[in-house]
């Protein structure tokens, strides 16, 4: 054992906060695995009610934050919040990204000098990157739970199709994948990267999938859909027994789901979450209804009036994480929009996670139009003839479609897209046909580039 590592261990053993966390996390993993077995049994038809434990976990993090975090201690006093009063929870002011940046040191409970907490950054898909500290979560336990719902067995190979950066020496050999560490196994033992995909090298990507023979694939919908389109267009028979494909980290369209399902001949899993680790959403069947784990966080769907919406209504997803004792997030505004489908035995259901509150395009007179109202939940025939697309707005009342089209794209597809956007929102559409579209630094596709500042 190295001297530096030994010193770190000694420091931890003399830190009561680490000792408390270590024991808590050890027993917490055992408890969460037991509860997740109950959750799996529930979805298989057994009777459980998780509302009581969900409320107990909420009270526990509220009590911890009110006692140990300067920010929450002051916030609860100023707003006369009694954490024992259930109704008072709904009077706690929302937490947003700007508050986290401004008050980060006050929100934190464990100093950032401690080497057992981690610093995490989000990808900034809203234009607002965020950094914060965490003790981690029970995400990997939830991933295994979700895989088991689709027949996972120990030893099954999981492939990540994400934005991993590949070393230059591998790229020079046309290798676009890399082995991950053992700690990453729930998220894929190998990563196949979206960063380097072109029309010319898609056959190399497909060959790797054929050789690797994954049991489960987990990754970005746009990336997996691009590969699926190539498989279908070239009539490639994979001959693989894939138990499920988990779509995560991006929004997706119905046509992408159908493309992926057809090409890979398997079930589709929807997984919803954030780097902030305050919600873990998952689907269990072809409806792709999102269920929010009652052991991971407390989920609300809030309307523009600041009040929880009714079933069937759309609002912003607001979450309270149960497991980050380094820097608690209480009533955190995610910026995501979803249709609330009700509460089932303590499990919040989200019927459709359709976009972000920031995903607006603007009419001539600067009226906001939610992009998801035009794009998601509708099936355009043109989608069958588009490999990838992006919407850019530089001028109110006008948008530019940047489209990577396939051979079947036609003038009728242009007319369909143009007329729908104009008829619904009085937005004029122009078209640019391109070979590639830029990805974010994490290898994700961004649907909307909004260049109008409000």
TrEMBL record:
Membrane-spanning segments: none
Taxonomy, superkingdom: Bacteria
Record protein name field: AMP-dependent synthetase/ligase domain-containing protein
């Amino acid at each position: 054992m190295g001297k530096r590592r030994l010193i770190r261990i000694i420091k931890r053993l003399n830190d009561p906060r680490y000792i408390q966390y270590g024991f808590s996390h050890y027993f917490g993993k055992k408890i969460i695995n037991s509860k997740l077995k109950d959750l799996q049994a529930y979805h298989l038809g057994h009777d459980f009610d998780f509302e009581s434990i969900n409320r107990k976990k909420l009270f526990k993090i509220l009590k911890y934050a009110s006692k140990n975090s300067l920010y929450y201690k002051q916030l609860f006093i100023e707003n006369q919040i009694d954490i024992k009063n259930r109704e008072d929870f709904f009077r706690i002011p929302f937490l947003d990204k700007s508050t986290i940046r401004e008050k980060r040191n006050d929100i934190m409970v464990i100093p950032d000098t401690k080497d057992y907490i981690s610093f995490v950054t989000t990808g900034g898909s809203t234009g607002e990157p965020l950094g914060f500290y965490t003790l981690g979560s029970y995400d990997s336990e939830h991933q295994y739970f979700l895989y088991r719902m689709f027949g996972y067995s120990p030893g099954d190979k999981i492939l990540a199709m994400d934005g991993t950066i590949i070393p230059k020496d591998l790229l020079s050999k046309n290798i676009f994948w890399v082995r991950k560490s053992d700690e990453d196994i729930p998220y894929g033992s190998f990563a196949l990267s979206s960063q380097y995909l072109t029309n010319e090298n898609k056959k190399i990507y497909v060959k790797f999938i054929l050789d690797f023979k994954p049991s489960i694939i987990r990754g970005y919908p746009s990336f997996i859909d691009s590969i699926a389109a190539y498989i279908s267009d070239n009539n490639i028979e994979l001959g693989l027994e894939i138990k499920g494909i988990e779509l995560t980290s991006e929004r997706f369209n119905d046509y992408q789901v159908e493309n992926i399902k057809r090409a890979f001949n398997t079930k589709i899993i929807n997984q919803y979450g954030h780097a902030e680790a305050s919600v873990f959403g998952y689907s269990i069947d072809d409806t792709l209804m999102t269920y929010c784990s009652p052991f991971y966080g407390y989920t609300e769907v809030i309307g523009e009036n600041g009040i929880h919406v009714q079933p069937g209504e759309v609002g912003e997803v607001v979450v309270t994480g149960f497991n980050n004792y380094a820097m608690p997030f209480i009533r955190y505004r995610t910026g995501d929009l979803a249709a609330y489908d009700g509460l089932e035995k303590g499990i919040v259901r989200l019927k459709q996670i359709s976009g972000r509150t920031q995903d607006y395009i603007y009419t001539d007179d600067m009226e906001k139009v939610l992009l998801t109202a035009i794009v998601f939940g509708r099936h355009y025939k043109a989608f069958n003839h588009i490999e990838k697309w992006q919407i850019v707005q530089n001028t109110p009342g006008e948008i530019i479609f940047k489209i990577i089209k396939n051979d079947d794209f036609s003038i009728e597809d242009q007319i369909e897209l143009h007329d729908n956007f104009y008829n619904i929102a009085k937005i004029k559409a122009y078209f640019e046909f391109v070979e590639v579209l830029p990805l974010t630094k994490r290898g994700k596709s961004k649907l909307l580039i909004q260049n109008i500042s409000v």
